[in-house]
Amino acid sequence: MSDPSAPVGAGFMRGDRRQPTYFLSHGGGPWPYLAGPIRAAHAKLERSLKGLFVDSSRLPHAVLMVTAHWEDAAFSVSSHPRPPMIYDYGNFPEHTYHVHYRAPGSPDLAQRVHALLHAGGIACRIDPERGFDHGTYCIMEPARPEADIPVVQLSIKAGHDPREHIAVGRLLAPMRDQGVVIIGSGLSYHNLRLTGPAARGPSSNFDTWLNDTLVGHSGEDRLSRLEQWEIAPSARKAHPREDHLLPLMVAVGAAAEDLGDRIYHEDDFFGAVAASSFRFG
Question: What is the pTM of this model?
């Protein structure tokens, strides 16, 4: 088994400074591969994602993507060296079922994630077949179209225990000092049955609480608020099922005492929804 304390991706000649963690809203369907109204609705989000890796001196050795679109009975990590694509959406143009984000995977990084979680007493399964889902490529295509940074995916766990996901983040935090950027990919508001003008109030209420929690608090206080996220204003209207919020728990667990910063926000996503993304460190 690989030594989880060893450097990751040493051959990439990237910057070795500590990497931040992120919680990023990834948008809907295969939007980076579309034109027209759907792409236009993502314009502000797209601009924020294009700014993730602009500093060449700070490029990560690898990306660990905690994706809302992979849920398993136990935490699972992808190890395919050339990940295939998963087209986990419907009713989009035919060409969107043939797009391919061609970044490599990293079996070595997958083994290190497995080792860190196992050492911390958290069961983790290595999946050698898993491909990239749209929670991954809808971030990475606009953020790094060169597709030259290895990407490994980590699932969320069924049961949706926020404490468990925070604990996973704590265990993975050392990877930030090994050139790995940890990204939680979800959405700050995810209720497909409450959209349009009716979503304006609930999404804004929850987004205000989320920003206060992530930017206005840090450390154990921030974690305590996240553990009790269901009592936040409009929490269950914003997230009737919290799969798109759980990647945040991993990102904040890995952030430790680092302060949060909102790096993307709009009050009119698809005309009415308040949506945000955050960086820690």
Answer: 0.94
CATH code for the domain of 185: 3.40.830.10
Distance CA 240, CA 232 (A): 13
pLDDT band at 103 (very low <50, low <70, confident <90, very high): very high
- 3 is a domain residue: no
Alpha-carbon torsion, ordered 127, 133, 138, 141, to 10 deg = 60
Residue-wise pLDDT for 14-32, tens only, equals 545 799 999 999 999 999 9
- Residue 34, SS3 per DSSP: coil
Q: Kindly state whether residue 173 falls inside one of the protein's structural domains.
A: yes
The verdict on residue 143 lying in a domain is yes
Q: Which 3 state secondary structure label does DSSP give 111?
A: helix
Give the range of the structural domain holding residue 204, as residue numbers without chain letter: 10-280
Burial code (b: 16+ CB inside 10 Å, e: under 16) for 258-278 equals bebebbbbbeebbebbbbbbb
Q: What is the pLDDT of residues 77-87, one digit of tens each?
A: 999 999 999 99
Nearest Cα to 89, choosing from 79, 76, 99, 104? 99
Domain count, the chain: 1
Instruction: Please indicate, yes or no, if residue 130 is contained in any of the structural domains.
Output: yes
